[in-house]
């Protein structure tokens, strides 16, 4: 990927003052729930710079990227995932990817998103119509991806992703994402949280049962959901310099949360000039010969997943593999 530079000096100064991007994974209620809290302010700004997005486009793709990042804790071993949203609304949808190595990338299906009147709120419902949500997973050694699809229920990216887990995997899951803009439309805070109820496997009970073991699943889930709904605006929290641990250990204090891992998640793409050059070299011979014979200038290719532009020169196409 050719990394686009963020040139707004005021934005850079703000980003330097707040906490760096990081994801904290945690467990609580004696391991009955797992979660992740993610500061993705830098990630969303890098995404916006790479794709040269407007405010509405940043809001849609930014929320999709934050959700994709929050899916990384659900991966097993080396795994790659695609999260796709296809709607008949003006936004059309998106396709974003997440990798267990810690990067996310993706693109909008409609850029620019048509807008008939000035935005009156940050509600994306008018732009996200009926359609489908699909998640494809492929792990190390797998020959085919595992694919699950559900109908869009809420026209809300985070809620529809939770709906996917409830319908496709029968797992109680919640997502919350938020992006905070300043008065000039700059992203000054962005992040998200993921929570998931772990399966109950039964087994021998502890001789010293915890308060959580005395609750039935429905009661415990309801209590956790109530705490989750009390979460402040995540984007504003990070914009104001808020700390991740204050939310995890404050919001869920009655469930004895424990942070188990911190990791970096970035907007990145494994594309390169060499990769695109090899793709072109392996076109049918007639097409390749036509390109070499008629193009005097370098061929410009654009990676739709990160916006990087590469010049492919003829000598790359004539060289042996």
* Extended strand count: 13
Query: What percent of residues are in strands?
Result: 25-35%
Kindly provide the radius of gyration, computed on alpha-carbon positions and rounded to a whole number of angstroms. Answer: 22 Å
Largest sheet: 6 strands, mixed
* Termini gap: 22 Å
Q: What is the number of helices?
A: 10
Topology as a string of helices (H) and strands (E):
HEEHHEEEEEHEEHHHEEHHEEH
What's the arrangement of strands in the largest beta sheet? 7-6-3-4-5-11
**Level of helix content?**
25-40%
Nearest-integer average pLDDT: 92
Structural class: alpha+beta
Shape: globular
Low-confidence stretches: none
Task: Give a concise summary.
By secondary structure, the protein is an alpha+beta fold. Helices cover 31% and strands 27% of the residues.
Features:
alpha+beta; 6-stranded mixed beta sheet; 321 residues; single chain; 10 helices; 5-stranded antiparallel beta sheet; globular
How would you sum up this structure, described in words?
The protein contains 10 helices and 13 strands. The chain is an alpha+beta fold and 321 residues long. The protein has a 6-stranded mixed β-sheet, with helices on one face. Strands 8-9-2-1-10 form a 5-stranded antiparallel β-sheet, sandwiched between helices. A two-stranded antiparallel ribbon has the order 12-13. A hairpin with a 6-residue loop joins strand 12 and strand 13 (309-312).
List the helices and strands and how they pair.
Blueprint: H1 9-17, E1 22-28, E2 33-39, H2 41-51, H3 55-70, E3 79-87, E4 93-99, E5 103-108, E6 131-139, E7 146-151, H4 157-168, E8 173-181, E9 187-197, H5 217-229, H6 234-239, H7 244-251, E10 258-263, E11 266-267, H8 273-281, H9 285-294, E12 299-302, E13 309-312, H10 314-318
Parallel strand pairs: 5-11
Antiparallel strand pairs: 1-2, 1-10, 2-9, 3-4, 3-6, 4-5, 6-7, 8-9, 12-13
């Amino acid at each position: 990927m050719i990394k686009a530079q963020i040139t707004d000096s005021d934005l850079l100064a703000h980003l330097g003052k707040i906490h760096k991007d990081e994801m904290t994974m945690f467990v609580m209620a004696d391991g009955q729930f797992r979660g992740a809290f993610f500061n993705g302010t830098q990630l969303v700004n890098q995404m916006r710079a790479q794709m040269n997005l407007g405010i509405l486009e940043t809001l849609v793709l930014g929320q999709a990227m934050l959700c994709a990042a929050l899916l990384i804790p659900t991966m097993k071993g080396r795994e790659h995932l695609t999260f796709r949203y296809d709607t008949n609304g003006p936004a059309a949808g998106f396709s974003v990817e997440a990798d267990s190595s810690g990067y996310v990338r993706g693109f909008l299906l409609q850029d620019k998103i048509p807008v008939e009147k000035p935005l009156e709120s940050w509600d994306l419902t008018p732009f996200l119509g009926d359609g489908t949500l699909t998640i494809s997973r492929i792990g190390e050694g797998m020959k085919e991806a595992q694919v699950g699809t559900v109908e869009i229920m809420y026209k809300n990216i985070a809620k529809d992703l939770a709906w996917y887990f409830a319908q496709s995997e029968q797992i109680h899951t919640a997502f919350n994402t938020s992006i905070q803009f300043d008065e000039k439309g700059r992203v000054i805070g962005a992040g998200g949280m993921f929570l998931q109820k772990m399966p109950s496997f039964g087994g021998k009970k502890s001789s010293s049962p915890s308060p959580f073991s005395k609750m039935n699943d429905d009661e415990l889930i309801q209590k956790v959901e109530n705490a989750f709904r009390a979460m402040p605006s995540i984007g504003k929290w990070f914009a104001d310099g808020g700390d991740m641990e204050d939310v995890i250990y404050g919001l869920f204090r009655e469930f004895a949360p424990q942070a188990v891992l911190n990791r970096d998640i970035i907007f990145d793409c494994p594309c390169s000039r060499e990769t695109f050059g090899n793709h072109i070299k392996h076109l049918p011979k007639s097409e390749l010969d036509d390109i070499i014979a008629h193009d005097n200038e370098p061929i410009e290719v654009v990676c739709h997943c990160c916006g990087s532009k590469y010049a492919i020169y003829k000598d790359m196409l004539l060289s042996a593999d």
